[in-house]
Amino acid sequence: MATKEKITIEEVYGELFNNRLISPDHNDRAAFTHYLHNSQNGVSSSFKSGAVDFVTKVLGYKFPKEEFSMTAGESALQYLLFDFNQEIPFPSPQRPDFTFIDLFAGIGGFRLAMQNLGGKCLFSSEWDEKAKKTYEANFGEIPFGDITRKETKAFIPDNFDVLCAGFPCQAFSIAGKRGGFDDTRGTLFFDVAEIIKKKKPKAIFLENVKGLRNHDRGKTLATILNVLRNDLGYFVPDPQVINAKHFGVPQNRERIFIVGFRKDMGVDEFSYPKPTGKPVAFEEIKEENEVSVKYYLSAQYLKTLREHKARHESKGNGFGYEIIPDDGIANAIVVGGMGRERNLVYDDRLTNFEPVTNIKGEVNREGIRKMTPREWARLQGFPDNFVIKVSDAAAYKQFGNSVAVPAIQATGIELIKRINYAKRK
Asked: What whole-number distance in Å separates Cα of residue 154 and Cα of residue 182?
């Protein structure tokens, strides 16, 4: 009978993805990989139904002349567990010290940091499809989709230790109101707060842009803290702005970190990590070998940038491109605008000046180029075995939107210390 044929993970992916049997944002895909990752612990039941449905559809597609029940799908799913390939760059620890979920996961900066500390991720969500591909390539798991949807939230398991989220910053409509839980409706923070309210994790770890402190004249942050402290009952010390350059990466990247602990944990103090004091410079993460000519600016574009900067300087503005010396610190890498142009570098090792892209004019002979996606990855603290499967344009966006892994990890150490201490009390 056809059902006895060997079915591999690769075939499961290939049959559905290549033939568009399931839409790209279908949660069955995520449930399938989450089930495989959690088959040995108590949370696998959260994903089993979606995983079985996924595999049943695969069987129906591969063997269209046969009829399959959900029981057949379940049997096939159990078979696939034995074929599950753990040869991924960053597998979960076999004996985790704590568990966490990864919301607004991006490409997994939070996950990488928390796994390095011995944590196991039980659930991840991310809406961007290209980011999902990078996440899967490195962690062997497809994040669930839009976390604002009830059907996505339904997959979140109970009893995880830490909720991690780098949620986008949005203003709240709190004019004349108390600035509480209900006043955050319609924002992404509301969805985070809703999950905290329902699941009651031991700790929370949130990250946002530095501007959150002054966003909407401070009302946004005040509302967030009020919700976490008063509505949800968490001990939340004053948030702190952490700069990535103080934690081993040559990037001047300031982000606000917010941590909190469920009040019954008995945690009543928290100290954010102190800077390492270790000097860092771009030369530490610079490409060791000659890079492609495609990263070098054309002479015409370089001329345009200089003229643009001169115009702004004549008006008393400091806006424009910037070249980072080898012994310097990069500006914060960001998406759009002058994100790449404010982090140009000197590199005189180019030997082939023949353009490989449709640039206007000749390649500049001053050795001025953009940083490569791998250099951006290193600026965020991602190791070199982190797989980049997407185009350069998508990679710049993904790393620009990510968190600085070493800064997250340093703060995570302090957070886990408090959880472990609370357990011993």
From this structure: 21
Which among 7, 35, 29, 34 is positioned nearest to 16, based on CA atoms?
29
- Whether residue 8 lies inside any domain: the answer is yes
Angle at 292 between CA 405 and CA 325, to 5 degrees: 55
pLDDT in tens, 322-373: 999 999 999 999 887 677 899 999 999 999 999 988 878 899 999 999 999 9
**Helix spans in 281-404 (H):** 299-314, 373-379, 392-401
Whether 376 is covered by a domain: the verdict is no
3-state secondary structure of 143: coil
What are the two backbone dihedrals, phi and then psi, of residue 86, each rounded to the nearest 5 degrees? -90, 5
252 falls within a domain: yes
Segments forming the whole domain that contains residue 30: 2-81
Instruction: Provide the annotated active-site residues.
Output: 169
Q: Rounded to whole angstroms, what are the CA distances from 138 to 131, 306, 330?
A: 11, 39, 26
Its pTM stands at: 0.86
Residues 196 and 250 in one domain: yes
* Number of structural domains found in the chain: 3
CATH number at residue 170: 3.40.50.150
Question: Between β-strands 323-324 and 344-346, what pairing exists: parallel, antiparallel or unpaired?
Answer: parallel
Q: Are residues 193 and 295 in the same domain?
A: no
